[in-house]
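W.,

You were right to be curious about this one. When I first looked at the sequence I had no strong expectations either way, so I just let the prediction run and decided to look at it fresh. Below is the sequence, 232 residues in total, followed by the output.
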Amino acid sequence: MKHILLIIALLLLPLSLYSQGESIYFSDAIRINFKKYKKDSSLAYRKGDTERGKFLFDSLVDHRLAGTIFDDYTFKKSGGGKLTLSSVEKPIVLITYASWCVPAPGEIPAINKLAQQYGKDVKFVVLFWNRRQDMKKAARKFSSRITVCYAHESYKNDAPIIASMKHTLGFPTSFYLDENLKVIDIRRSSIPTGPKKSNYNKGYALNYNSVLDGLDKLLINRELTKEHLATK
């Protein structure tokens, strides 16, 4: 009987944390909720139900991950040195990639354009799941306004980053964090299909608009926070 009660308590724990408005870390929320999400989404994709798969991802983000506090990870920068997320004093757009994962045509130019337009107000970070020597060529495609970093299973201290990000939500995935590292949104990239030229144009538009939508949520949240603090 005690064993059954303990299981029930653990199942209800995520709901109680969220309902009480208490902040939990992103990595804890992933650990609590990912197993069920993976089981349900794997079943949906095996059945070819991509709409169900997308719905499950969006539900995980909206109801379990948004509002959590992103872990204060430290990433290795491709140009040398390190970047600790808490050292960034403005909202962050964090996009994960891997050198072997070919981006959609127009995807990187769209991100570079947005970094030029919004880099003053938002920190753009690209994180490769690679060793440094394996991502150097791919890193050169990104604007100098974007901080390119890397993490890999073989590197010391990267295990928590790999476990909570790479081995759960996959990549390419975009994380939108406010200046206090609160998760505002998480999105996946869309890869269009079609003729090469229209593929580029469509890829550019889809990725530009997707990241822009996330930026809008991030910046609107920032303004609402400022207004709230001003009224106190």
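Here's what jumped out at me. Residues 24-68 form one domain. And, maybe more interesting for your project: The longest strand covers residues 92-97.

Coffee later to discuss?

I.
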